[in-house]
Amino acid sequence: MTTTRDATAARTMREAFASTATELLVDDPRVAIVLAEISTQLFGAGRRHDPLRVVNVGIAEQTMVGVAAGFAMEGFHPIAHSLAPFMAERPFEQLKLDFGYQGLGGTFVGAGGSYDYASEGATHHAAGDVAAMLAIPRMQVLVPGHGAEVASLMRATYANGAPTYIRTSLATNDERHVVSPGRLEVVRRGRGATVLAFGPMLTRTLRATEGLDVTVAYATSVEPFDGDGLAAIVGDRPHVIAVEPWYEGTVASALTRAIGHLPATYEFIGVPRRFVHDYGTWQQIDADLGLDAAGIRARLELIA
Q1: Contacts of 162 (CB under 8 A, 6+ apart)
Q2: Nearest Cα to Cα of residue 276 among 86, 127, 82, 89
Q3: Alpha-carbon gap, residue 171 to 201, rounded angstroms
């Protein structure tokens, strides 16, 4: 288990993203940042460094993706950013055609998933963003669980030629882990089921599994997914329980590709597939949906 406590814990994932993107802009003349009015205050240093490579198109996310594609066609590494529903869902057709179909590479960073903006209603909720991104061939999907993990995942992928969606949230784990795309980490070993926590679900999953004889593994990469790693973890006990911060069952295809050749059983603990009409903070919505530590524990006691 590799974890670290440091000052970056005080930074939100969005702040960590903006800082990393600005560093990449300064260090790599091929990086361009395209915004749609969201988080523009975090990119002042980038605009001062090179205003031609930090573009704010206004509230026009489809245009943002199109401009990013133009940068990519000219040999740049574009980084586009907005709130998760406006990054993954509103410009879905442009992502599919401009980047997926044309084989371009770019980084797309969504903030606020699944319901950081809980009181804003369905326009600002994005429990389906990862499922949408997985529908685009070649799209990589990464989900850091800590602000300090954002930089590692961005730096590993921003110039790899693939379209990559990075999902950030206010929810965060207590500690950072050493992460890389396509890698699982075993955090706790047990003799029973394997509980696979994605992104910011790890800390609450560890609390929920205290005293249970289960293995807990941590994933920040949905695509590519560490299928070989999961197969090695489950061994001859292929009972997997995925704890995911988006619609439950979203990672089902990744799990079945990994261990579908085994007599495996699967359970999914995630956002119920219904609209959220309640108001409150994201923590209150988590509790209402059974996605806090107590709610996850109650589910595990029934199925683990």
Answers
A1: 105, 138, 139, 140
A2: 127
A3: 8
CA nearest neighbour of 146 among 4, 303, 36 = 4
Nearest to 246 by CA among 91, 113, 77, 80: 113
Using one digit for the tens of pLDDT, what is the confidence trace for 264-299? Answer: 999 999 999 999 998 889 999 999 999 999 999 999
Task: Please classify residue 174 by burial: count the beta carbons closer than 10 Å to its beta carbon, then call 0-12 exposed, 13-18 middle and 19+ buried.
Answer: middle
Domains and CATH numbers, the chain: 3-167 (3.40.50.970), 176-303 (3.40.50.920)
pLDDT value at residue 2 = 44
CA 189, 193, 197, 202 torsion: positive or negative? Answer: negative
Nearest in space to 148 (alpha carbons), one of 6, 2, 1:
6
pLDDT digits (tens, 9 = 90+) for 88-124: 999 999 999 999 999 999 999 999 999 999 888 899 9
